[in-house]
Design brief:
Strand order of the largest sheet: 2-1-3-4-5-6
Structural class: alpha+beta
Shape: globular
Number of helices: 2
Distance between the termini: 30 Å
Strand content: 25-35%
Radius of gyration: 13 Å
Number of strands: 6
Oligomer: single chain
């Protein structure tokens, strides 16, 4: 999956557990509860996994359960919501044209499975 151009500035990622997935069909931002903060190697690994997501076939639901907010040392850079059921992702970034906001990925690929495992590990036991 193509990451926003600003991804190289990312120093911190908020892992977001999406609480109202239906709102993301037409929302202007990512909404949910911060489940974890990733820094350092965790940021680099997460961005690598996202960049390595192969394209997939998009289904229709787009009810994302997880997302990220990428931050530089001074500002929020972009947000991505992931739906592992329909293989869709939505990116929010200032100035990003609407036609570049939607992406597909193979949710059964090794990078997607590892990303989902990392997200799931952020939930309290």
């Amino acid at each position: 999956m193509q990451l926003p151009l600003t991804h190289g500035e990312t120093t911190l990622i908020e892992v977001v557990r999406i609480t109202d997935p239906v709102r993301h069909l037409s929302s202007e931002d990512l909404a949910g509860d911060t489940a974890a903060i990733w820094e350092g190697d965790q940021v680099q690994r997460a961005l690598s996994l996202i960049a390595d997501l192969p394209e997939g076939e998009l289904y229709r639901c787009f009810l994302p359960g997880w997302g990220i907010r990428a931050h530089s040392s001074t500002r929020q850079l972009f947000e991505i919501a992931f739906c592992f059921r329909c293989h869709g992702a939505r990116v929010w970034e200032p100035g990003l044209p609407v036609e570049q906001q939607g992406h597909t990925f193979d949710a059964n690929s090794p990078p997607a499975r590892e990303l989902l495992d990392r997200f799931s590990s952020c939930l309290p036991n």
